[in-house]
Amino acid sequence: MHLTDEQRNEIDAARERSAPTRRATVPALEALLYQPIAVLDHGFIRVIDYMGDDAAVVQAARVSYGNGTRRVSEDAALIRYLMRHRHTTPFEMCEIKYHVKLPIFVARQWIRHRTANVNEYSARYSILDREFYLPAPGNLAAQSPSNRQGRGAVLEAAEAAAVLDLLRADAVRCHEHYVAMLNEGPDGAPLEPGRQGLARELARMNLTLNTYTQWYWKIDLHNLLHFLSLRADAHAQYEIRVYAEAMLQTVQAWVPMTFEAFRDYRLGAVTFSAPMLAVLQRLLAGEAVVQPGSGLSRREWAEMMVALGRDPRSE
Ligand SMILES: Cc1cc2nc3c(=O)[nH]c(=O)nc-3n(C[C@H](O)[C@H](O)[C@H](O)COP(=O)(O)OP(=O)(O)OC[C@H]3O[C@@H](n4cnc5c(N)ncnc54)[C@H](O)[C@@H]3O)c2cc1C
Description:
The chain is α+β, with helices and mostly antiparallel strands.
């Protein structure tokens, strides 16, 4: 993660400012506020602002006049009850705002989450930095033979090196052509006097998808947890999952009771369909159930066996 001296100074200045408030604040999240948490090679997430805490969830659920006088254990139990029974609106009372720096191809997945407010760095207005995501060799894998949406074995060293060379060379070349088309140097002066230079909104079409972009992303806690349940999941692509995992750290600092309930009832939980439940009941009754005739497809059967910690090929 590269930050300029100017950006570091701005972050330091923001972290030095404080103002008295009657609003709820969370010391553990205050400690993280504005600080970038590095993700991938040049990316980061940082919390810019937030509203509410665990008590705000409880307060909304009880529609109370203050923080209330209940014990912490009662608040935690209520939050766990809300999470378990998908009583979601109390979680919408809390909001958080992130600044995220991410490769464009990750942003394309991320933007599918429609319930956030987003403002992206404008490549119509500004020139995108020469920063590209180049995976670590351990993350360069072959196409998965079993999952068309996933990756399989890590590439052999020689092939990984060749892939990295191509990725780097193509990204650099496209960025060089982008700058040439803009005809604009770092100081804003024309590279070749006498040439008009192409508009930024057009020149950007030449950039590779691993170029980094940035946005401010604001969302309520309920929808954030929905995002995290999909993107911190093992099925999510590694490059977005690492962002979700960094955000989980901030959620844990911000709303620890909600985080624990989310971890237990969403992240670490599995859902069984009605036919799966019927299979489970038969297994618990000691019956030797096999996939054929179980009412489950081979894929569902394998998924269920994995969830139960059994050999997915067992039939
Ligand atoms: C592992 C994985 C693989 C994926 N593969 C593909 C793929 O191959 N192709 C592809 O196109 N996408 C793919 N996606 C994206 C996926 O289909 C969703 O678009 C994305 O996860 C956003 O989910 P969401 O709509 O629930 O979230 P959000 O947009 O954040 O919405 C949250 C919830 O709000 C409600 N909501 C929001 N907007 C509406 C609306 N207009 N109408 C009704 N309800 C609404 C829904 O209940 C929704 O669940 C994939 C996602 C994952 C996690």
